Amino acid sequence: MNINVLYAGNPKLWSIYHTELSKALAELGISANVSNDVAPEDVDYMVYAPNGPVQDFTPYKRTKAVLGLWAGAEKVVGNPTLTQPYTRMVDDGLTEGMTEWVTGQVLRHHLGMDRYIHRTAPIWNQPAPPLARDRTVAVLGLGALGVAAAKSLRALNFNVCGWSRSQKEIDGIECCSGDDGLQDVLSRAEIVVLLLPKTPATENILNAERLAWLPKGAVIINPGRGPLIDDQALLAALDSGQVGHATLDVFRVEPLPDDDPYWAHPNVTVTPHIAADTRPASAARVIAENIRRGEAGEPLLHLVDREAGY
Question: Quick one: pLDDT at residue 48?
Fold first, then answer.
């Protein structure tokens, strides 16, 4: 029987995903009709993104799984009409993109590169930065993206410590958990990278109290989720010098409004949610594998825990 796969992602990317999904399914020997126009009662699998056309999953009674194209699940996991199994996107393209962005930003701050990029002649005889082995970087969030970023930084010889809500064991990375672990990690971190999911337990995890735990002048790098940071507390910490700089890729409201104070702050770098994006070719292979698993009765990859939110 031919399998009906509905593409319900960003309509602008339909032609690319049609090509890549068809190719990935064929490589696994799966005969499937990949379309952006399938009657709800005929859909076997849905390839989904929150910026696509489907918001009500009720009519999709035959659908065996909704296969997400985004790493985060917070925009859909609370939808009461979503009763089908939901998987989030974890793929090598997304992971590599995030790792490259995080590594580049950490190196930028570690080396103090902003000081040397001038339109006029720079000041000579500047002191050399410390070596990576003398710099502590904290990675908050040890999922697939956090682990990859932590390992990349450790390979460059940074002193990397990681924190997650549940205890993890990762070769070469000091792992902490719990409230005491968070205070321990933040109290040592000269650079903090936020790669936690957005859940009720992680919202505003960097608040005024926790920002005060940081060594004075520490750097915040957030490519994870905007609501992880209490924005007013961060702005106050930047104004006082408690936080030396913040490089922010994600925000509570996107695009970031023109009048947002982050734009004008001299110690904030804004990037337009570019740290990591889903690459259609690699994402299609993950989707195809999950369809193969669904048809074979095997466990789906990256199945979201509704209660945990990720």
Answer: 98
Which two tokens mark 284?
């299609």
Tokens read off for 112: 């103090």
Whole-model pTM: value is: 0.88
Specify whether the CB–CB gap between 56 and 66 falls below 8 A.
no
Q: pLDDT digits over 189-207, tens only? A: 999 999 999 999 999 999 9
Longest pairwise C-alpha distance within the chain: 72
Q: State the Cα–Cα distance between residues 87 and 305, nearest whole angstrom.
A: 9
Identify the band that residue 124 occupies on the pLDDT scale cut at 50, 70 and 90.
confident
Is 225 noted as a catalytic residue in this protein?
Answer: yes
- From 265, 273, 292, 293, the catalytic residue: 273
Give the neighbor-by-neighbor strand order of the sheet with 45-48. Answer: 32-35, 3-8, 45-48, 65-68, 86-87
Q: Which of 109, 110, 210, 225 is catalytic?
A: 225
Cis upstream peptide for 50 (omega within 30°): no
Catalytic: 273? yes
Token pair belonging to 41 = 């009662």
